[in-house]
Amino acid sequence: MEYSYTISGGDFTHAGEASSHLKRILKSLNLDPVLIRRTVVALYEAEVNVVAHAWNGKVMVDISPDEIVIVVKDAGPGIEDIERAMQKGYSTASPTVREMGFGAGMGLFNMKSNSDSLEIKSDPGVGTEVRIVNKIS
Amino acid sequence: MDQQTSFHHALFVDTDICNGCVHCMRVCPTKAIRVRDGKARIDANRCIDCGNCYRVCPVRAIRVEQDDLSLILNYPVRVALIPSVFLGQFPDHIKPEDIYSTLIRLGFTSVFEVEHGVEIIRDEIGAYLKKHSHQIPLISSFCPSVVRLIQVRYPSLTSHIIRLKTPHDISAIYCRKYYEDQGYRADQIGIFYVTPCAAKIAAVKSPVGERVSSINGVINMDFLYNKVLASICRKPETDNGIKVLSPGSQAIKWTLTRGEVSCFNVRALGIDGIQEVCNFLEKVEMDQVKGVDFLELRACQEGCPGGILAPSNPFLTVETMEQRAVNCSSKPAESPGVLDQYRDYLISQASVDPIEPRSILKLDQEVGVAMTKLTALQDIESKLPGLDCAACGAPECNALAEDIILGKGSIEQCPFIGLGNLIDESADLSDVIKPIREVWSGKIKQIKL
Question: Where do the structural domains in chain B lie, given as residue ranges?
Answer without folding.
Answer: 11-64, 69-348, 367-443
